[in-house]
Specification:
The chain is of the alpha+beta class and about 160 residues long. The relative contact order is 0.13.
């Protein structure tokens, strides 16, 4: 697929926003997006709206979505995207140049981000971002498990 259509982009964006424990409709309203009109194809996203929605994903995740989303498939686009991320994450975790870390959402939502970073050279890396509930993070912090070990177990 060369360019993701507006309906698929809106579905992916909605799932990404919801996963972050935010209200997708409120986010779309703030961006001036009429989700119903876009999904019914009576209105198209503007170039600015597409750029704003694209920022929900890391560069690598965006490239991955472009590769794996098949609009003809019966599998929901978010499931296709998440499965592709897991396949890539499993491969990355086997490499010595992969690092993992938690990023807090500045207390805005009850989730944290687990980032996997594959570094090729200084200032050249790809990033995958997984959203985790705070409860999972708190359990991890209370156990003497290395984050990388836990990540491998959870993603397999």
């Amino acid at each position: 697929m060369n360019d993701m259509d507006d309906q698929i982009l809106l579905q992916l964006a909605s799932s990404a926003i919801t996963q972050r424990m935010q209200d997708a409709e409120k986010v779309f309203d703030a961006l001036g997006i009429d989700g119903v009109a876009v999904m019914s194809r009576s209105q198209a996203l503007t170039a600015l709206q597409r750029r704003q929605l694209r920022r929900l994903f890391t560069d690598y995740e965006w490239m991955l979505a472009q590769k794996v989303i098949d609009p003809e498939s019966a599998i929901p686009v978010w499931n296709q995207f998440q499965e592709a991320k897991l396949v890539v994450a499993r491969q990355w975790l086997a490499l010595s140049n992969t690092t993992t870390k938690f990023l807090d959402d500045a207390g805005k939502t009850p989730v944290m981000h687990l980032q996997l970073r594959l570094t090729y050279a200084p200032n050249l890396a790809d990033v995958l971002d997984f959203v985790l509930p705070q409860q999972v993070v708190q359990r991890l912090e209370s156990k003497p498990l290395a984050l990388l070990t836990w990540s491998k177990e959870q993603l397999e």
